[in-house]
Structure formats: structure tokens, C-alpha cells
């Protein structure tokens, strides 16, 4: 597992990521989906395991699940599980917030 810096600080991440609004994050050749929930950052693959839809075009609900914009499948941002076990789980990447930046494990 390789740790890659994606933001210089938590404050920078908060400035670039609106709360509970998915964004596309590109790291090398990987296209990922990032979500900030208060001071917690979550990163997953950007493709829905069911349909391949871009999850950064989806939304986050009150249960802190990311919802696919195509068929409304819901994925837990902590473990990637689909709420109704209708498809494969979403791949989730570990995130570390340190004094010198925010890091993502690839």
C-alpha cells in the first residue's frame, strides 16, 4: 500500500470539498470519488459497482451513504457495503489526516 498526499492540510480539503458533496479526485491514472463529512474524509472508486455510473455525480444522504445517480443504489462510505446487498461492494480507500497533509492509501 502506497500513501499519496492529496491535500496539504485538512483546511485545504475543507475549502475544496463542500460538506456531503461528492467530488472527483484524480490520482495518477485512478479516478476516485471523495466526500467530506464534517472533519472526516472518505474516498472510494468513482464507478458504481452496479452500473459504472460516476459517483461524484451522485449525492450523500442523511445516513452518510453515497447514492448512485443512475439507479439510486446506496453505499456506506465507511465500509463500501451496498445498503440492500443488490450488487458488489464499493471499494473504499483508507485516508489519514496528518499535520503535514491528507494522505490516501492506494
UniProtKB/TrEMBL annotation:
<comment type="similarity">
    <text>Belongs to the bacterial ring-hydroxylating dioxygenase ferredoxin component family.</text>
</comment>
<protein>
    <submittedName>
        <fullName>Rieske 2Fe-2S domain-containing protein</fullName>
    </submittedName>
</protein>
<keyword id="KW-0001">2Fe-2S</keyword>
<dbReference type="GO" id="GO:0046872">
    <property type="term" value="F:metal ion binding"/>
</dbReference>
<dbReference type="InterPro" id="IPR036922">
    <property type="entry name" value="Rieske_2Fe-2S_sf"/>
</dbReference>
<keyword id="KW-0411">Iron-sulfur</keyword>
<dbReference type="GO" id="GO:0051537">
    <property type="term" value="F:2 iron, 2 sulfur cluster binding"/>
</dbReference>
<dbReference type="Pfam" id="PF00355">
    <property type="entry name" value="Rieske"/>
</dbReference>
<feature type="domain" description="Rieske">
    <location>
        <begin position="9"/>
        <end position="104"/>
    </location>
</feature>
<keyword id="KW-0479">Metal-binding</keyword>
<dbReference type="InterPro" id="IPR017941">
    <property type="entry name" value="Rieske_2Fe-2S"/>
</dbReference>
<keyword id="KW-0408">Iron</keyword>
Amino acid at each position: 500500500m502506497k500513501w499519496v498526499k492529496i491535500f496539504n492540510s485538512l483546511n485545504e480539503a475543507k475549502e475544496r470539498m463542500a460538506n456531503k458533496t461528492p467530488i472527483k479526485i484524480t490520482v495518477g491514472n485512478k479516478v476516485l470519488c471523495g466526500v467530506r463529512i464534517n472533519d472526516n474524509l472518505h474516498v472510494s472508486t468513482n464507478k458504481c459497482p452496479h452500473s459504472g455510473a460516476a459517483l461524484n455525480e451522485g449525492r450523500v444522504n442523511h445516513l452518510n451513504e453515497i447514492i448512485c445517480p443512475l439507479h439510486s443504489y446506496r453505499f456506506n462510505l465507511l465500509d463500501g457495503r451496498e445498503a440492500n446487498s443488490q450488487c458488489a461492494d464499493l471499494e473504499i480507500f483508507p485516508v489519514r489526516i496528518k499535520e503535514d497533509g491528507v494522505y490516501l492509501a492506494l
